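Lab notebook, bench 4. The sequencing result for the construct came back, and we need a structural model before the next group meeting so we can plan mutations. Quick request posted to the team channel:

Model the 3D structure of this chain.
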Amino acid sequence: MTKYLLLSRTNKLKKVIVTGYIRGVFILPRYWRQTLIISAGSKEMIMFKNGVTNKKIFIYSLVLAVFIIYPNITTALWMLFLDVGAEELYFFVFRYLYFVVLFWILLSWNLKKSMTTVFAKRLVVSFLIAGAAYGLYIPISLYIFKIHGDHLTVTLVFQYLVTMTICAGIGQVHIMYQNQRLKEMEIEQLKLETLQSRYEALTNQINPHFFFNALNSLTGLIRNASKDQTIKFVDKLSDVFRYILRSDKKGLVELEEELEFMKAYQYLIEIRFAKKLSFNTVVDTDKKKMKLPVLSLLPLIENIVQHNIIDAENKMKVEIYINENNELVISNPVHPKLEQSVSHNIGLVNLDSRFFLLTRRHIRVINDSGTFTVYLPLVEE
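Done. Here's the predicted structure in token form:
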């Protein structure tokens, strides 16, 4: 009775594992991709917001005001040389500070307030602000400093027009640059989303049929009443399942991590084939920190199992090592089945595409003299 109860629970476990696998692969990556894009966009907007500060605008105003009143600077120097009244010098300082304030107002509006891309609109608003400042300048020059006729000079009117045009032009260039950067950011986001979508689509092609095979092996262990072996098998299966569910959050992983995963998976395979399939892994410790795309070995081992006869007469020994080109080599003898699955080439193309997306390098496949060998390029940390 207990044995049949365990079998029933095993069948339920199959459904839970496959459902969890599908949810882990399809749902979590979408959240990860959205988080990456939102984060990138937020950083770009903060950069634009903090790019033009009041301190910078004030410094620009001080410099541009000197450029505008340059003709008056020459006059002020002559006044110092001729020893004229202090009132003229005070008025010169007032004019300079007045243009500093005007530049600060116009630049602040054009760089931080106005978002229009139409230069004519920007110019009209700047003209109105400059006109209001000119209207305020007239009574100050007439009734405070008693400088008659200064407000009617062509030079002063020209200075106001140039100030207005410069500020409107700077604002227009700034908004055009900002829009261009935002477009570039959107393009980069689309590239990131497309790249991530392609990678996820390729990862999702990993067939979960090995879970069914593993659970069928578990069913056999339960029928044979192999308690200790069954418990160990379930532990290893849990390790494999946990690694696969977490793989959607990873791109490149250390070779050491991938080999540790393969140890757990290797145990499941050896139980399934009653030790007719074995692995010989020889990797130096200093090479285990190199990286490769997550779940690179799983589809290769699955292809070996799926497309070869493995029995007492055709035992399978898989060699795993690193060659002089820092490539992880997976080699196995070929014992082809009579009917080959059409998914064989799809799995290798899938793996090659994942490698190219993450490392910009392709895998190599050699099938000759009864040996099938795959070379996976490793990436230095």
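Strands lie at 252-254, 277-282, 291-293, 316-322, 327-333, 364-368, 371-377.
Will bring this to the meeting.
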